Amino acid sequence: MKEKKFEINRILKETRKDYVQHVLLEQDCCNDPFDQFELWFKEAVEKDSMYANAMTVSTVDENGMPDSRIVLLRNLSYGGFTFYTNYESSKGNQIKNNSKASILFFWKELERQVRMQGEIRFLPIGESELYFRSRPFESKVGAWASQQSSRIENRAALDERYEETLLKYKDKKVPRPNHWGGYVLVPVSFEFWQGRASRLHDRIKYSLQENNKTEHWKMVRLMP
């Protein structure tokens, strides 16, 4: 098959940047990776208060194919990183079949990445109820109108479903759908990546260790 030529390849070849803003040394790292994440997250919020909590969640489908999407971090609780979605969506079904997953934060303004690997669990229903009540009316209605990840004829059909659902719940309390709620990824590893000059980046990894039924985090440096 003849290879197609793309104009953006020239742009990609010419796009280069050296990372010189920060360093990450072991002596400056917190012993607990959650504390280190909180420290970096606060700095990320100062740079970008709107999207600092955007994270890539990667799961695996029934054929072993990785699948990734951006969701929003909503809390650090229940031992991990929480987010909300439709339980019957593609990601929900993938989590049901394989609860192991990873999440990734990228903060370009700080030239930093943080990624975690672990297991995804359900948040308690009460927690999902509380969060659903805090959502805007339109977002609550949207959770009922959209059968997330299922096929639909066109945009007009989706808009029609939404308008019908708006009318249904007009001047009423919108209940949380049983198919909508929260998850928490409980990490067993963290990696903090700080961009450095000449591609000699800093990479500090924390791995959860268990000794005599007690847990602690082991920190190592990885080659860039």
Element layout with pairings:
Elements: H1 8-14, H2 33-47, E1 54-60, E2 66-72, E3 75-77, E4 80-86, H3 90-97, E5 100-107, E6 112-122, H4 125-134, H5 137-145, H6 155-168, E7 180-194, E8 202-211, E9 214-222
Antiparallel strand pairs: 1-2, 1-5, 3-4, 4-7, 5-6, 6-7, 7-8, 8-9
Overview of the structural elements:
The protein is built from 6 helices and 9 strands. The chain is an alpha+beta fold. A hairpin with a 4-residue loop joins strand 5 (100-107) and strand 6 (112-122). The protein has one domain: Roll (Pnp Oxidase, Chain A), CATH 2.30.110.10. Helix 5 (137-145) packs across helix 6. The longest helix has 15 residues, at 33-47. It has helices at 8-14, 33-47, 90-97, 125-134, 137-145, 155-168, and strands spanning 54-60, 66-72, 75-77, 80-86, 100-107, 112-122, 180-194, 202-211, 214-222.
